[in-house]
Amino acid sequence: MSFWITLISGVIVTAGTGVALGAALGLTGLFILQFYSNGATSVAIDAIWNVFNSFTLSAVPMFILLGEILLRSGISERAYSAFAPVFRRVPGGLLHTNVAVCTLFGAVSGSSLSTAAAVGSVAYPEMSKRGYDKDTVVGSLAGGGTLGLLIPPSLSFLIYGALTETSIGRLFAAGIIPGLLVGAMFMTYILVKCIRNPAIAPRDPIRSSLPDILKGFRHIWPLLALIFAVIGSIVGGIATPTESAGVGVVLAIVICSIWGELTLAKLIEAIYQSVLLFSSIGFLVLG
What we know:
Elements lengths: L1 H15 L4 H16 L5 H11 L6 H14 L2 H9 L10 H16 L2 H18 L4 H12 L9 H10 L3 H29 L13 H9 L2 H15 L5 H18 L5 H23 L1
Helix pairs in contact: 1-2, 2-14, 4-7, 4-13, 4-14, 5-6, 5-11, 6-7, 6-8, 6-10, 7-8, 12-13
């Protein structure tokens, strides 16, 4: 009983001082090892080395970089323009587009933060101009952004698989259907809410034909090819997550340089932000 009291109170006290959560967990762990395991602090050193020397875990910063590259290349605008005509006749309109594009970006970056930022930077200003309810817009973006936690290549799955030595391919395969179902539930809720209160999402007077919809998807085929190459190679057992992530980053740089708006300055910024984000994740894993 005293062990758990010490553990919980140690985390609360250290976290309350304002230090990073990873540092709070790590300091508490070292204290527990020192006083409850006869000073076996060398165990912590070995554990830290084994975790960060994991080949699978090295895929995490690569997938983060992949998402950051897409975020800064303007690809989200093309994807949003391609999906917008699909839902013009559906109550909820662009709210459904938010969820659909978040699902698409979640299948590339694996990061909820990158997904929400990429879609939100395009969707929120446009939807505010059209008179959409701002609370509902933010809700659709926040909910859609979390799909990156389920839809491969989820960073959560990568970290869990690396720490527990679970097959990443099986984790990814297990997350596809639940992720799509959650996205479908979000869209169903939006549909029902907008039918009950049409003022939330003003109807678009423009009607899209099937050729218009197909034309829009034709403009985002490089992004769809990137998704197939990254996820398909892992689930199909063709490549490891680390290999797939590395190839995905190279393809993203090529695609976004030719097809998007990626410049050297934006690439450097993407690398910098990726390092910051992975450092935060690394502190938590270390703890």
